[in-house]
Amino acid sequence: MKVLIIGGGGREHAIAWKVSQSPKVDKLYCAPGNAGIAQCAECVDIPVIEYEALADFALSNKIDLTIVGPDDPLADGIVDVFEKKGLRIFGPRKNAAIIESSKVFSKNLMKKYNIPTAAYETFDQADKAIEYLKTRDFPIVVKADGLALGKGVIICNDFDQAVSAVKAIMEDKQFGLAGSQVVIEEFITGPEVSVLAFCDGTHIIPMASAQDHKRAFDNDQGPNTGGMGTFSPSPFYTEQIHEYCQKYIYQPTMAAMKAEGRDFVGILFVGLMLTKDGPKVLEYNARFGDPEAQVVLPRLKNDLIDVIEACIEGRLDKVNLSFEDNAAVCVILASDGYPLSYEKGFEIEGLDNFTDKEDYYVFHAASKKENDKILTNGGRVLGVTAIGKTLKEARSKAYEAADNIHFKNKYMRKDIGKAIQ
């Protein structure tokens, strides 16, 4: 098979690394890719938003399967574009990707089909949202409706903070068109767990659980980011909780989307809060998580291509999904100043320490190659993943590895997975 992966971050590197292991694949492309992805795929200089150009590339190069990594192309309907040209592509169509691209849609879906989630109201006018805030208890959560690179969720401790959040989203357009509506949601507490699941439109099979660290600084301080590190499995996600989620969240979500005429084929990412009243859905995403993919895919025993083909062909119920009995921890090496302002273009040293080492994976999130040197090229630069028998062992190995990689202005959280030791 010839396979094309769309995207150029750490998630896409993890997908490319896993796909490259399939005996079914003899040629792998990635558009646009990065310096790390180039080690296992041929990078193609086409931006992820140029859907027609990507489809034309797939046609002219006789691509058998395209896998979409990021959220924006899915929300904009890249799957529909490819399918109209008779191309095989893995990911939800635009009318199903709305489960991520509109928080108003997903919250209303959960309310309609009795899927457990936090109480909420939605608003398309700032003044009405502010009036509503006068009646609420705090803390409270204000969310931009649309896609905002994982940064459109603001936890507000008092009325003034909440008003500022509403104005930043709806009036100042801090997140652009994503802020044309807001969701104001009750603040719920408990361990936060990420569960990615394969879906074929009818059936859903969850992968191993993971836990992300969204805040920029240690002890969950600072602004939200795309994710500063993650680990798998979550010790809080017990078999009992899994059975509850399967019965009351995962399968009902698939059935709800089908009932709405929005059959979901692809990866459904369910962000859960394990509250004292039981698991509740914080949000849905319509693709692999980043950096969750960097800890879940290295633990997956199955050939990823086999599972993806089963999803596309509607026979996921015939798949026996299996994961290694181990643990993985991923530490993000970022450019100091991320997610606000940062410099790039600095040489990355120490990568050759991990070329042939088992149980260590360095997934490139934002890198480029110039004059035979690998340079930083964004906010989140690398995801350093290590495997261990236990989370404690994996965490120790991940930090040992991270300390052996150097670039100017390198920054990382020091507490990824620390709370579970």
Automatic annotation (TrEMBL):
NCBIfam families: purD. Residues 107-313 form the ATP-grasp domain. Pfam families: GARS_A (PF01071), GARS_C (PF02843), GARS_N (PF02844). This is Phosphoribosylamine--glycine ligase. The gene is purD. It catalyses: 5-phospho-beta-D-ribosylamine + glycine + ATP = N(1)-(5-phospho-beta-D-ribosyl)glycinamide + ADP + phosphate + H(+). Its EC number is 6.3.4.13. It comes from Herbinix luporum. It comes from the Bacteria. Its cofactor is Mg(2+); Mn(2+). The lineage of its organism: Bacteria, Bacillati, Bacillota, Clostridia, Lachnospirales.
